[in-house]
Amino acid sequence: ERFASHFQTLLAAMVADDTQAVSRLALLTREQRELVVRGFNATAVPYPDQACIHELFEARVAATPAALAALEEDAELGFGALNSQANRLARHLRGMGVGPDVRVALCFERSLDMLVGLLAVLKAGGAYVPLDPRLPRERLAYMVEDSSAVALLTHARVDASLRAHLGSLRPGGKPLAVADLGEATAWAGLAPENLARAGLGPGHLAYVMYTSGSTGQPKGVMIEHRGLCNQIAALQRRYALGATDRVLQFAAVAFDMGVEEIFGSLCSGAALVLRSDEWMSGAERFWELCGRHGVTVANLPTKFWEVLAGETHAAIPASLRHISIGGDAVGAAAIEAWFRRGGHLPRLVNAYGPTEATVNATLCDIVPGSALWQSIGKPMDNCTIYLLDAAGNPVPIGVAAEICIGGAGVA
Questions:
Q1: Could you give the 3-state DSSP secondary structure of residue 199?
Q2: 362-365 and 205-211 as β-strands: parallel, antiparallel, unpaired?
Q3: Which of 123, 154, 150, 120 is nearest to 137 (CA)?
Q4: Helix-strand-coil percent breakdown of the chain, rounded to 5?
Q5: Residues 310-363: pLDDT tens digits?
Q6: Is 310 exposed, middle or buried (0-12, 13-18, 19+ CB in 10 A)?
Q7: Sequence-distant (≥ 6) Cβ neighbours of residue 63 within 8 angstroms
């Protein structure tokens, strides 16, 4: 019936104007076009579009300064302490010339230092460029130079030869200022209070994240505060993130899933649980550590979740209420294994979005017995999804097409 309707529309378009190009012939009636273009994209909701992302964190600091903000194996920081440390470093960075749209490279292992450095760059008004120390040094050097970073923040957990190599770079012909967060004497005496914006606005850059790129060279994606604030506000609504949550920090900071984890937690008053490599030593150990640390929300790469799904003997802790997966298409065997297992099962969400869309563009709840597990779901708040043919025309429901993303989160 649907096919017949589209065929009739096509014939009517041909009769109405036999001079138009075939690629411009309509398959959709006016009502059908209205549905797929506007009806499916009725996603507009209020969000803090005049805020900068660190201001959402500072609001949580003001509300609960003594609450736990983040913990790793042998250390933890409350919201107030994390904020004060970041403010001191931010003042030091401003003295080094960091301001709106000025890039600062971050090269850390997953740690509390990483959080201090990341927040400090934002508070200083700059944009952070996350570097994964496990990547080849030539690739990291390219990112530092291509982004025209003026400074590098790092710490002693990163290999000394890598730190020295990156520190010797001269982006734009200028020496790179290096700050080791293990040696904080240069800024330890600076004021711990929040900094004024100093010309910073929601349209300035929050971070520059490098993806693989289609040419073989990494490609820097520039994300603004406004888009990031929208993403976090949407996740807070969709995942019901709050102060009672403990969010697992699983991803590398140079991967955009880490953005969701870090800011989703810190801007919601939740506690961020930074994993170590020990968490990767098998399903039983992973679930055990989730339970020990009271993890309630986890964002996992699809491939890793599929391994967990297949290990049906390992019990999922009752604390875990929400799992998001993403990065690859999910397989039917893993879905079947997951819902066959007994015991507690948290909510499962399939998330999709390129780095250019500020982490997630669509979400889909995966529920037992539903045929929609292959779907990437519906657009996020203030995001639009258009399915277009090669000529840029919206296609009918059920027709394969290219995904075109618009809205507040697009870089």
A1: coil
A2: unpaired
A3: 154
A4: 40, 20, 40
A5: 999 999 999 999 999 999 999 999 999 999 998 999 999 999 999 999 999 999
A6: middle
A7: 269
CA dist 55 and 44 (Å) reads 22
Domain boundaries, the chain: 76-223
Tokens of residue 206, six digits: 């929050």
For the stretch 273-284, pLDDT in tens is 999 999 999 999
How many whole angstroms separate alpha carbon 149 and alpha carbon 302? Answer: 32
Q: Which residues of 212-235 are buried (b: 16+ CB within 10 A; e: fewer)?
A: eeeeeebebbbbbbbbbbbbbbbb
Q: Beta strands 271-274 and 246-249: pairing type?
A: parallel
Question: Which CATH number describes the domain made up of 76-223?
Answer: 3.40.50.980
What backbone phi and psi angles, to 5 degrees, belong to 104? Answer: -130, 125
Burial degree of 138 (CB within 10 A; 0-12, 13-18, 19+): exposed
The residues that bridge with 325 in the sheet, in sequence order, are 300, 350
Determine the Cα–Cα distance for residues 279 and 235; give it in Å rounded to an integer: 25
CA distance 109 to 156: 9
Intra-chain end-to-end CA distance of the chain, in Å: 40
Which of these ranges, 4-18, 81-95, 132-146, has the smallest mean pLDDT? Answer: 4-18
- Residue 160, Cβ density class (10 Å: 0-12 exposed, 13-18 middle, ≥19 buried): exposed
Beta strands per DSSP E along 292-342: 297-301, 322-326
* Helices within 177-317 (DSSP H only): 225-239, 256-266, 283-292, 302-310
Instruction: Give the range among 128-137, 187-196, 386-395, 402-411 with minimum mean pLDDT.
Output: 386-395
